[in-house]
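Hello,

Following up on my earlier ticket. Below are the three sequence lines again, exactly as submitted.
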Amino acid sequence: MIDKNVISQSPTRLQRTADIIFRFICNTSAWLTLLLVVFIIFKIAVTAFPAVKHYGTGFLTGTTWDSQTGEHGILPEIWGTLFTSLLAILAGTIFGVSAAIFLSEGFLGQFIFSILETCKLEIRPLWNKLPERCEDVLKNLIELLAAIPSVVYGLWGLFVVIPLIRPACNWLNMKLGWIPFFSTTLSGPGVLPAVIVLSIMILPTITAISRDALAAVPPKLRMAAYGMGATRWETILAVILPVAARGIVGAVILAFGRALGETMALAMLVGNANRISVSLFSPANTLAALLANNFPEAGPSEVSVLMYAALVLLAITLVVNIIGSLILQKASAGMEGGR
Amino acid sequence: MDIWNPKLKTKPSPEAVLNIFEGVDFSELEKPLLRPRTLMNQLLIALVTVITLAALVPLFSVVVMLLLRGGRNLSLAVFTQLPPSPMEEGGGFGNAILGTLFMVSIGSIISVPIGVLSAVYLAQSRIESRLANAVRFAAKVLTGFPSILAGVFAYGALVLTLGGYSAVAGGVALSILMLPTVILTSEEAIRMVPSKIKEAAIGMGATNTQLIWMVLLPTALPGILTGVMLAIARAAGETAPLLFTALFSNYWLGSAGHIDIMQPTASLAVLIYNFAGMPFENQVNLAWTAALVLVLMVLVTNLIGQFFSSRQIRQ
Amino acid sequence: MKKINKGLIFFVVLAVVCFTVNSVFTRAGAAGFVKLQGAGASFPAPIYLKWFKTYSSSHRDVQIDYQSVGSGSGIKSVIDKTVDFGASDAAMTKEEMAKVDVGVQLLPLTAGSIVLAYNVSGVTDLKLPRTVYEEIFLGKIKKWNDPLLVKANPGVKLPDAPINVIVRADSSGTTYIFTNHLSAISREFAKSPGVNKMPNWPVGTRSKGNEGVTASIKTTPGSIGYVEYGYARSQKLSMALLENKAGKFVAATTASGQAALDSAKLPADLILFVPDPAGKDAYPIVSYTWLICYKKYTDKNKAAVLQDFLKYSLTEGQKDADALGYIPLPKPVVKQVTAAISNIQ
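Thanks for your patience. The regenerated structure is below:
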């Protein structure tokens, strides 16, 4: 509770010193974060340096990974990382933002309320909290998805998803094989199973943060829109989403980062083939999976090459974030008058 | 007309509701379904509902798989016994549960204060502040950090310097993964506090610290908590960072009756990773049970966090 | 504020409970308590873990712990001195051994075989001649009803379906052993991809870990892949009969494994690979796996416990090998390794 007396009195000596100390602590924390990231990047760069000198930029365009001949190239991995992450973000955003809207608008609660109404139970004390409780359960269920370990997602993908989609995918390949996306058969791990599992892994991040962003929109804006005669959906699309856009885009960027760096589940599901293909059913490889698969057995020279790949991944994350910030700037510039 | 609205915390009394519209003709307010805007409205609501349900299907699939495969072995024994060797009957993963609790706690103790305080700094900073932009950018770069690299980095920084694997190294690796989520979510949460509340407090004479501690943080707490919970959930389930830092242990943490966090430590995530890959049924089954217990633990943590966070009514 | 206070009290209570539970269950004992930490290959992990657990339960003041992180990481840990002992399927190279100032002693404690497991409906007995399985993994033989396969398996109905080869996605000792064998029997394979923990396979979908390959074989019709014997046995996969150097088609059994190990004598440094064993009944793909100990320990108690454990593993421990899918060491080998134990001080 805000103690009005404490705030309205002019600050005592102690409070002023506490204020200075607190500002200092916040400042230090921010510096610590920055220094930590710089230090991590520095250490990785130092380990990667021998490989960078040896391979140069050919590393980025090479397509073979052969420890025997010493030929290393990560173009297939770069492609795989971007391809799987972009597709996962597409699916994750559609499903995640829909779920966030569903949660923040309270559709489930209203639905349950209308059921209670028909049973004439809505006023009874035992039942009248039910809609709210159901909303909470749904919110917690979705956040629960974040708790499931990557390894379990990998196993689920291997034992449930792949056998489930294999017949459908091979049918698509037979009938519509001329479309580049369906041009190979699904023999096991591949892009599609990886994307499916990846989008489910990033869904809770997008939903939880977007829901908070949507819920934080001032009720006055919503009421004003209703008052002017807008339907539910017109309000959502024209008023609420734009205002919450900043939070939603932030959520998507966070999720993109997660998708780029996801290691375990993709190592088990993406097929680890050094191939570049637009087909959804072909196996591919990602930078993080490459690291996970090779690191345990890597000797010192190979560690250097792997760190080079890690640097490339960090660079990709950097670029993605820059693009995301630009999008955000454009979006907020467009609706300055909104608040 | 909706009488129940999640935004309002109060409910009108039944009599008041029934009396208020006596005599009013509602027919003008009702919108026929066939008008395009109403149709679009209902269609989109249906669409969003379908998509959300579709998103829940895989969730249920995974949870059902966990329950079916993991529920079989769930008993008190799994909380109190040590991991079994291949083909050995019984056994449990009590040490792994404790290890996960310890290491996620260490990770949280490091990442939550630094994260929230950095977020406070970022949220209160001016747009042009170079430090703030640099920090925000650094946090965003860290979001894409592969989990295995966090482990590799902690190996170089802590395991080599301290001469051995330890729970502390594992906790530090986890904190690297938790930090970006905590910072970025908390900053958003603090920024979303309505400026009117901020201005009112400043107008009443609050110092910066009072503003932050008594107004901003409590109001932003639900949002910050979302970020912290997401971070904890992820940290609890991560395997790769722990493989090179905390390794694993088939024994309880410590020896001779005291806790030792400077030793290799068991964790649920690594146990699941190890046992799921074994060719022995007893261990594979235990891996599923461990996965179920892990998810339940995170759920409980989530619920506890929600219970303790005070939901402020916007004034 | 009151709620936050309640929260703090809750967490303090939780912490105290955790500490107490842990202390209650932790082994008490001050002096003489020895803890050994090891890390390394995943190939022998099941039998090592069984040994360590059994040994620790019968010796109340000893705790030996092991984690499978891969042969490469195991060797790295030994070089970095972050463990008390390591384990590797590919032994150690001279350069790696030179990096450890106190010297290392490699001891083969067990051995295992690698099988070619397959999933072809209706086919329970499959004979694979040397030339055939080498060409399958080179990508030259692409279909199950290839004339060479049909010729080797008269009376077996082989379908007109593509062979889905499954290989490892991750770097592994198992792959090293398999490629070592393939390079020994095929000059073409030796040139490329060659012997490697992570070769550039010309063909095949990749799965992570022995368990991943097993799962892939199980769920992919028409597939074939290489896995450790224990995995194929536990998942009841069909295993092919391979043609050995003597021309006989042999299945992977304890006897055929031991026949393979018998065919070559271990040198003094106890490092020996048998990529193509000569015995009549020998199974063609077998390998030792080594425990890596330092030659000198600063803590003499650790050295003593290690020596005692090693003796246990070479005598009592060998009885566990068969049940877990490993090959018990032949008697002459046990003698040689036991003699080498005294090199650890």
